[in-house]
């Protein structure tokens, strides 16, 4: 049901809350300024106070905000966005670190990478690849729950000395449900007890057929510890991306998803946003969940400021008025009024949902990915 607080109603009419309360009292209802009233009552109040009422259907508020179509001719290739999954201790964090570190060292010597929740590296073939590096955070779960698809490819890490384990199987199922292709990274091949053949056979039992066994799933034997075959893994990702023919329109206004967000003491709310379509520019008005802001600065994973960020590029966004949540979808809007309309609507929705739900559950996916 559509509702509004008395405060919000008063604000929208530029009336005093007390006048609204007084009017409701005349009709026999006692209210506080923070009380929620239904849309019909709100309409009566507004009309009584001489305001023209335009009822906006709930679904209209976000109309045109996301997924508006692009012209085929505007689409250009974009980098793949990769998430690493696998059983605990199979080497997800080590692999993410190794890939990032290898790239930083080869790029600018001694460059300090900062953790922003996602990073981009260059594959040996020269093409960029974006990694979401907060597997353990609630981000992935939250994103999927909200219908935001941020991952193009899942790299499934399986330790060669341990084989397929329960969370490996879960990851396979999740990737399948999300219709995201897998690339298998058989990790820890440096270990004397590594048995990559066993991993292949076990994967087969879960309908993952790797290339060397006649299947279609790319597989690379790696060692995160010894930084072995990381280039081959990146090449495999690029190859898979080519098959997927990933494209986006960089010329439209930006859409994306919040990967991570926090309140920084000095800088205020800081959100890592993965841009998915369009180009995000400094000065853009953005909404994310129930928050909005004007982009004050954009920083990449090396801490360098940027003027803009195109498709598949992860950036830290400064300028939000409040801290959005991981998984919130981001969109650029044309005016402050629109930003307020959307975020106020979402704020109301959040309150309603929280009231209806009570507690919140924790998904196994977030555990699996840590
Ligand atoms: P996660 O739980 O999947 O993130 O796994 P971690 O990256 O934390 O790794 C778990 C353990 O395996 C750590 O002690 C790592 O040092 C070790 N490890 C990760 N990759 C390799 C590898 O390629 N070879 C060997 N020998 N050990 C590894
Ligand atoms: Mg880890």
UniProtKB/TrEMBL annotation:
GO molecular function (one): GTPase activity
Gene Ontology, cellular component aspect: cytosol
Subcellular location: Cytoplasm
Tr-type G domain segment(s): 77-247
Keywords: Cytoplasm, GTP-binding, Initiation factor, Nucleotide-binding, Protein biosynthesis
Assigned protein family: Belongs to the TRAFAC class translation factor GTPase superfamily. Classic translation factor GTPase family. IF-2 subfamily.
Gene name, Swiss-Prot/TrEMBL: infB
Protein name: Translation initiation factor IF-2
Composition bias, Basic and acidic residues: 345-354
Lineage, top ranks: Bacteria, Pseudomonadati, Pseudomonadota, Alphaproteobacteria, Hyphomicrobiales
UniProt key word Lyase: no
Organism: Methylocystis bryophila
Record region (Disordered): 345-368
